[in-house]
Amino acid sequence: MTAPRVKLDIDATRDKLAALGLGHxxxxxxxxxxxxxxxxxxxxxxxxxxxxxxxSGREERRIKTMLKMSKIxxxxxxxxxxxxxxxxxxxxxxxxxATGSWIRNAEVILMQGPPGxxxxxxxxSLGVRAIQIGFSVQYYRFDELLTALGADxxxxxxxxxSKKYMSSSVLLIDEMGYNPMNRDEASRLCPGAxxxxxxxxxxxx
Length: 205
Prior knowledge:
Layout: H1 11-19, H2 23-38, H3 43-70, H4 91-97, H5 101-104, E1 109-111, H6 119-132, E2 137-141, H7 142-151, H8 164-167, E3 170-174, H9 183-188, E4 201-204
Parallel strand pairs: 1-4, 2-3, 3-4
């Protein structure tokens, strides 16, 4: 005669996980536990799966939050960029940029080309990828950046460090060169304008 199957009460476990701030583990606990019982999963494997669920959930939330804060336009990624439509664009070079090595090396990237070749799409895509691999990013259209710089022109440089265009690891500047600048606007973009920030800037021209 077989012993009756013990019904597991996981409410206490859920409460403990929630108290530790492991919300994603709470959400997946029941389904993972059921899978573990059916597959006779070793305890350490079950625990590893539960921790993976928490880690991936946190990472997904981080990326979602950073994308929202960056003001990057949605829907444009490297995965949906049509390289076949623009054969002049070297895919290998874009894939190298997607590794983020240029950010680690504090390099400035300038993209040039006529309208309609996909510069904005690539700019946004590389910004998304930078967030995915752990960098903070801020997106501006060129006119928005000029407006922000103008509004902060009276602020001492030492107080500008908290501004997004100064504190983000990557500054994306889109639609640069579409409209002429006056002398005051040009002076805001002189070499000293960003001297207090790491030179990790991706510029679209």
